[in-house]
Specification:
3 copies of one chain form a homotrimer. Chain A is α/β, with parallel strands linked by helices. Chain A has 12 helices and 10 strands. In chain A, β1, α1 and β2 form a beta-alpha-beta unit. In chain A, α3 crosses α5 and α9 packs antiparallel against α12. Chain A is globular and about 50 Å long. The interface between A and B is medium-sized, with 21 and 26 residues.
Chain lengths: 298, 298, 298
């Protein structure tokens, strides 16, 4: 039995795995296991992978837990991504970094992810980047095949422009567009991405929702300092940490943006979960927007 | 009995009220009354307000005329706008300039505008700016409620991008997008705004149709000088004033752009009305475009 | 009998005529005849004109061949364009360079092109540039009239943005959008133009597919040098010339981009035809993209 991803069933946060392995915390198998159980205990059941994380090793790490803990698989939903080809010792055949959304690559990538993750099915497959050569008809066909075979339950994209999303979604239903959204990357608010999600009732998800590390270090940049000062005021008001305010800022948008959490620390995930009770006022949202903009709105 | 706003019934110009009160000419009540009667005599019956004009005082000024001249109300159509919150003595609760298109704010703003304007209904309500947090479903619901209650007859937006317009218009019919269009602000010709109006047969209206005061002052800017020189040639040919040529330039577009007049002088409004007979040739339109562009078209 | 242009029947290349006459090779009538026969022998039957080429003389040159070789007309398809008005000795009435997509100008231009080309019908009429004043309803009507009269069989546009294409195509079916696409002009890959073509199954065609002469001259520009070096590697691998690799690069896109060939030399056209057998790998396509981009993709 699977837990179908819908606008109502999705967790308020997705657990990003990018930095759990060799690209970050380098968790041991038992640490992964503890981390996964910690997330599930918090009722956060969506785990977000990509074939390339850890230079093609993080799916394997994660699969090593599932191998001996088959019970966990049914309690979670797994998203993974394909379509970026990295130059890597683990893919010696790659001569250059490229995108590849051919049916052949998508299918091969799904097979590899299934094997690495030690699972029979992916809950969601995302196309990681818009290959400039993507053929929406070919993709719709391979999605249909993968669905029929039970290998992938739902499909989505990442980093697609509204017109790229539109052409593919007109052929095969997409459940999300995972894009970079944060106080420091506000394009999605103005380039039609969130408008499209609202119109189609698609769930947007946000990678790098805290804007990278910049807001957490001392800075001489005027805008960063203004954001930090506003964050400090709000953190005090809500008796909260800075990251909690940033999650509340994203989640105030009516499209229902799902932040992808990048941490390997259960306490930060717990903090994120607790931040769900913070409701910024409209004016507070704009205080942060204007600090990031560096000026008053028009 | 109301005069429903349609593509056929709209006046060729809308009378802007932004600078009638404390943000400009500071008209007395009797001067307002004369001005309004002068406009109606010219068969210009659309008056364009916003809650914020005159720091939330211009609707009151206007309403003071309607209070003692109830006969005038039926001869005019009133548009007003909501959604910008200014820092103002008259709104001490505002801590920061922000946009707010929540149902709660829209409804409260309509109630205030009705009271200030001393009228039972608004002919048109425009959303003044796209709140980054706008929820099209919530807005469609409150529009429906306001319409059912007879408080607002038609709805539109201002300064919305094509994708913002699209998502809201897919849920509730919009009658206009009032955007900045002039020789000095030509984005609407190229960013899809006018294409969308033509496709949907929506009436675009243009704020700041003369481009602010820049074209009416001596300037050392090469492009401004080139525009002024072309305007002078055309003004001579058509025995017209500069502002008349600029209105004719806007009105040549087949979308039927309605300029919002910013003057409080009846003679300039009369002049605008007279400019309706000026028909620039295609080449003359491009002479002004290329002067503003600073080069030949491609 | 005409050969209807469809996605299946179109030649893999269109023969551009821009530089056959006074804007380039200045072919004599017999040279034109040889060139045309050479193209038809290669089964390349689409000839791409515009009223303005050679300052309004190239259609006449071409028509001089058809006058005495009526047999050739039935073996080819003729596209021509209208809508740009050049300052030219041959159009002394033009005071300024402008665009004009009024019905009146379109109709007059078609009549002139038919007379110049010495033919009864145009296979395809393209609107050369988006006149900022274009009225899609007026254009749809004149297209309908021209089609009914048998003067034009199909219609398309050139250099239209997706929203401009959309509004016109919603009223009258368009067969192509001819835009600038090459390694040095990559906008169409990202601005929605090719997405729209794929969604609507419209044939995109590419003017200046080799990017002008820049890639064929020594250059001190880092990106040009990087492209040239990658081209040299690929040319060696495929035993091909540089222009052949560039055509293969364009044709790899699944939208089926049709390059408009700009040469008057039959051997270069033969080479382009031979390039149809070159199939670049996905990685090779990205090697050229990244060389042109000046960096790795994200």
């Amino acid at each position: 039995m699977t837990m179908k991803l819908t606008k109502d069933s999705i967790s308020p946060y997705v657990i990003g795995t990018m930095r759990l392995g060799t690209w970050g915390s380098n968790l041991s198998t038992s640490e992964y296991e503890n981390f996964i159980e910690g997330c599930l205990d918090l009722n956060l059941i969506d785990f977000d992978h990509a074939d390339i994380y850890g230079h093609y090793t993080t799916e394997d790490d994660f699969g090593n837990v599932l191998k001996s803990r088959k019970d966990l698989r049914q309690k979670m939903r797994i998203t993974t991504k394909c379509g970026i080809k990295l130059i890597s010792e683990n893919r010696p055949e790659h001569q250059i970094k490229s995108y590849d959304l051919t049916a052949k690559h998508i299918e091969a990538s799904v097979e590899k992810s299934l094997a690495s993750l030690q699972t029979d099915y992916l809950d969601v497959l995302l196309l990681h980047r818009p290959d400039y050569l993507f053929d929406p008809y070919e993709i719709a066909d391979v999605f249909s095949k993968l669905k029929k075979e039970g290998k992938v339950l739902e499909f989505g994209v990442s980093n697609f422009s509204p017109s790229q999303f539109d052409v593919l979604n007109s052929l095969t239903p997409l459940v999300t567009n995972q894009v970079e959204i944060s106080l420091l990357h506000r394009n999605a608010f103005e380039d039609g991405t969130l408008d499209q999600c609202q119109k189609l009732k698609i769930i947007p998800s946000a990678w790098s929702p805290l804007g990278g590390g910049l807001l957490f270090k001392e800075s001489s940049d005027t805008k960063i300092k203004a954001i930090q000062s506003t964050l400090a005021t709000l953190a005090k008001k809500y008796d909260a940490a800075t990251d909690q305010i940033l999650y509340a800022w994203l989640r105030k948008h009516p499209a229902g943006i799902i932040p992808v959490l990048g941490t390997s620390k259960i306490e930060r995930i717990k903090a994120a979960q607790e931040a769900l009770t913070i409701e910024l006022t409209h004016e507070e949202w704009y205080m942060l927007w204007e600090a990031a903009l560096g000026r008053e709105i028009d």
